[in-house]
What we know:
The complex is a heterodimer of chains A (125) and B (204). Chain A is 47% helix and 20% strand. With 125 residues, chain A is of the alpha/beta class. Chain A has one domain: Response regulator (Rossmann fold, 3-Layer(aba) Sandwich). Chain A has a 5-stranded parallel beta sheet. Chain A is globular. The mean pLDDT of chain A is 93. In chain B, strands 1, 2, 3, 4, 5, 6 and 7 form a 7-stranded antiparallel beta sheet that branches. In chain B, strand 2 and strand 3 form a beta hairpin. In chain B, helix 1 crosses helix 3. Chain B starts with 11 loop residues before the first helix and ends with a strand. The chains are: A alpha/beta (125), B alpha+beta (204). Chains A and B meet through helix 1, helix 4, strand 5 and helix 5 of A and helix 3 and strand 8 of B. Strand 5 of chain A pairs antiparallel with strand 8 of chain B, so a sheet runs across the interface.
Amino acid sequence: xxxxKIIIVDDSESVRMFVFETLDNAGYEVIVAENGQDGMNKIxxxxxxxxxxxxxxxxxxxxxxxxxxVKEKLGKLPFPVFMLTTETSERLKAMGKExxxxxxxxxxxxxxxxxxxxxxxxxxx
Amino acid sequence: xxxxxxLTHKDPETISFLHNFVRDCSMxxxxxxxxxxxxxxxxxxxxxxxxxxxxxxxLILLWSGIGSITFKVxxxxxxxxxxxxxxxxxxxxxxxxxTAQDFMREFCNVMGGFLRGxxxxxxxxxxxxxxFLAPGHDEAIxxxxxxxxxxxxxxxxxxxxxxxxxxTDICLLEPDLVKAIRPELEKQLSEAxxxxxxxxxxxx
Lengths: 125, 204
């Protein structure tokens, strides 16, 4: 059986490792990107992904610009997006929502809460 | 109280408050970020400092029209290995040096994001750098480049066994704006300390 694919975009190695292991242990196939540019390439290459978890504050391209660029290229985001970030600004949340971000997660990541939210979102698809 | 020399600032009480605010935030944020290590603050005097406090530095810069804040953590590898092991819930032997260093870099990101959020709630827009790592001896360069209008303070964060030195350089140009929101900032810090909302997925 094919595993469901989830893309993680974060410039922090320790965050990527933590989220990767959480999702991998839960049976997902995890695709990892290290910055916004890399993330955009991975989205365009992996159209069968079911979800994306991305940071906001990253080198080369931030999370919002990355999503905006993808939306411009594809017309819409191909899957739901969670923003995993230290940012709490309402202004950024509104910008993310407009682009298709459905969940806002304050770092540090809690594996139990993250997996529960993923199951909830994927059950609706 | 911080060890900052506040007397040279036009509003010593507000600059002192801001130094203490950053200091208290660092303790609360590290407790959350390390997944519940019990962290305490220890005093550290400016007089005892050298050009290099530790092997490495992680830092982040925040700036706006009202001034700027630089937050730095001066740490050694065994400390970041221990705290990364706790925070990432992994055995110390399975954590690479770069992952442990990144753990401290990301701590600065957590601090920067929290401070930025506190001010943006009051419509004070803040620019924030990416967090980054530097060799400990670069402190000599940072000191040379420091804004002469800024004031520094430092303190230790300890888990009872090991510790790091934190420092902040704050340049406060508009103390009245900070003074006006001071009660709210204190409230935000106390709420953040009591709410364990880290990792909560807020559907928007």
